[in-house]
Amino acid sequence: MGSSLPAAAVADATHRVDLRIELNYQVDAPGAHFVFNVHAAHTPSQTLRTEDLVLSPPIAPQMYTDLISGNRCMRLRAAPGPLKLAYSVSLDLLQHRDDPAAIDEVPLASLPSEVLGFLCASRHCPSDQLTAIADAAFGSLPKGYGRIQAIRDHVRADADIAPGDLAHRMIALCRAVQVPARFVTGVACGGADLAWTAPRLQACVEVYLGHRWYILDPSTSAAPTGFVRFGTGRDAADVAFATVFGSIASRTPIVSARTLGASLADSGRTAVSNDSAAARCASDRLSMFALRSVVATQAS
Length: 300
Description:
Helix 2 (about 145-155) packs across helix 3. The chain is mainly β. The strands form 3 sheets. Strands 1, 3, 6, 12, 13 and 14 form a 6-stranded antiparallel beta sheet that branches. Strands 4-5-2-11 form a 4-stranded antiparallel beta sheet, with no helix packed on it. A 4-stranded antiparallel beta sheet has the order 9-8-7-10. The protein has 2 domains: about 10-15 and about 95-240 and about 265-300, Roll (C8orf32 fold), CATH 3.10.620; about 15-90, Sandwich (Immunoglobulin-like). It starts with 8 loop residues before the first strand and ends with a helix. It contains 4 helices and 14 strands. The protein is globular, with a radius of gyration of 19 Å. The longest helix has 13 residues, at about 145-155.
């Protein structure tokens, strides 16, 4: 695979997702400050139709968009006592499907300037310390989507890596072989190996290949489907679902979702991206999805 041109499209699909998230906290005295990143991102391939936010007790939050990442954030101060956040959104997801075998790596000289920062080591992704390891394990493999799958499978099979660190390890190894990689958060509303699994808050990996960003989940051999994006950053330090300044106790998040349109199953046959065109800055084009999808199964 010597070409760095974008892979030819196999097919596109759009589906509707209705999502609801509930977060519950018990805030200790004298109160706490919160910064939330739980609002669905605005992207060309993720079109928000309606959204609603309810805070209990009623609090007037401050909404802002991060100037660097484009992430939508909300900050507030909560008094001691219970705090409940309920967020719901209805949106349309556009998925672009590609043949994985046709997706090549982009030579360093051809990378867009705004992508270069995702080659550098970051707080939780010390890629500069893994260069020798990555080169020994993956340096001889053919460059392209297949090599990134090999990195994902290697990370997933490493029993010494805690589940919460899988995404960071995969990002660090990708950067160590000069493939830009970044950390994405959101809700996986569709199944990975099945047509449906319970929706869940999820952290995944996006890699820049074939002039698009593709998403992979290092905790499974398939990629998340129906993935609703919240935040994008270098690692978890940039895109925590909630950053809290103060003493609190939290309960397990409650997440529910309903999908309409194309099937969300992953058959392992195609690669999918929600990047509507070549990459631009994260604030105006936050893309998605490298998964191998059900489309080929339906056609076979």
